[in-house]
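> forwarded from #structure-qc
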């Protein structure tokens, strides 16, 4: 018996009985680097230079490490950014707090902290701006306004997208495991006179188990709002990316960096990963961290 045939039977039965979703493809932005990656990471010696060195070489450092000093409008003289969350949405608040924590943890000290309406240097809010063919960004940093915005239309529909993605991710894993079980069993009973009946019975059992597991996962997602949790985690990294821009970091050519132009993680689609996490997935890489450290040092030298 070939894996392909058992897969098609089990896949069809499982999809029809549980969620009826079309197949989705996922892109994981976690593999590979480019030839520019090494040169984009500031060395320990570069991070130990004097303020005068940073002032003198600010232009060459910006070119080499991809900095935009004009984007550092929310940073105080010490590099601290005080963030005011101008929305009552509790999930946005959770994402902002996680994003700040990601940077503070990686940098080893507080560079982002909560501000108030009366005292802040950056505002985060939801925007009603509609997406266009030219711009489908889910969030962005506006240095002139010291404003980070989240597109509310994308934010509102993302729970459905993530719920479907988690179920499809689980479905693929469950089906693949069931097919491996079926094929292994078929090999064990291949010489039995009743092999056809035995395999059919075993396949039916695997189908039932797959349906039961996927139904349980879907119920858990709905009952425990795991789709909302996944969105909190996803937007935490989205906001951490935008906060990186506020530190003066341009996009990185390195796919493993948070500051890669299309940063993301397949973990947001992973039911088990989302279910078992309370703090999300900090995607800030060593390159992101050292670039941020250098950008902050240059800002302090220029302040």
């Amino acid at each position: 018996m070939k894996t392909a045939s058992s897969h098609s039977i089990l896949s069809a039965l499982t999809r029809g009985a549980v969620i009826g979703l079309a197949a989705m493809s996922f892109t994981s932005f976690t593999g590979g680097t480019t030839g520019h990656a090494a040169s984009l990471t500031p060395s320990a010696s570069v991070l130990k230079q004097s303020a005068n060195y940073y002032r003198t070489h600010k232009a060459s450092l910006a070119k080499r490490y991809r900095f935009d000093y004009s984007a550092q409008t929310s940073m105080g003289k010490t590099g601290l950014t005080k963030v005011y969350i101008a929305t009552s949405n509790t999930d946005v608040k959770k994402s902002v707090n996680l994003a700040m924590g990601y940077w503070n943890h990686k940098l080893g000290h507080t560079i982002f902290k909560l501000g108030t309406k009366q005292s802040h240097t950056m505002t985060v809010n939801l925007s009603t701006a509609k997406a266009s063919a030219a711009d489908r960004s889910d969030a962005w940093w506006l240095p002139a306004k010291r404003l980070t915005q989240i597109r509310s239309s994308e934010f509102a529909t993302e729970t459905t997208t993530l719920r479907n993605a988690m179920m499809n991710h689980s479905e693929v894993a469950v089906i693949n495991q069931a097919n491996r079980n079926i094929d292994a069993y078929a090999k064990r009973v291949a010489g039995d006179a009743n092999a056809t009946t035995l395999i059919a019975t075993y396949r039916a059992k695997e189908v039932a188990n797959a349906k039961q597991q996927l139904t349980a996962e879907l119920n858990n997602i709905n009952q425990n709002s795991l789709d909302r949790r996944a969105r909190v985690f996803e937007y935490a990294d989205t906001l951490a990316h935008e906060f990186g821009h506020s530190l003066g970091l341009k996009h990185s050519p390195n796919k493993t960096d948070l500051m890669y132009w299309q940063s993301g993680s397949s973990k947001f689609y992973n039911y088990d990963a989302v279910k078992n996490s309370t703090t999300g997935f900090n995607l800030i890489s060593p390159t992101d961290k050292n670039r941020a450290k250098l950008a902050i040092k240059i800002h302090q030298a220029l302040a």
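QC bot note: The radius of gyration is 24 Å. Residues 1-38 have pLDDT under 50 and may be disordered.
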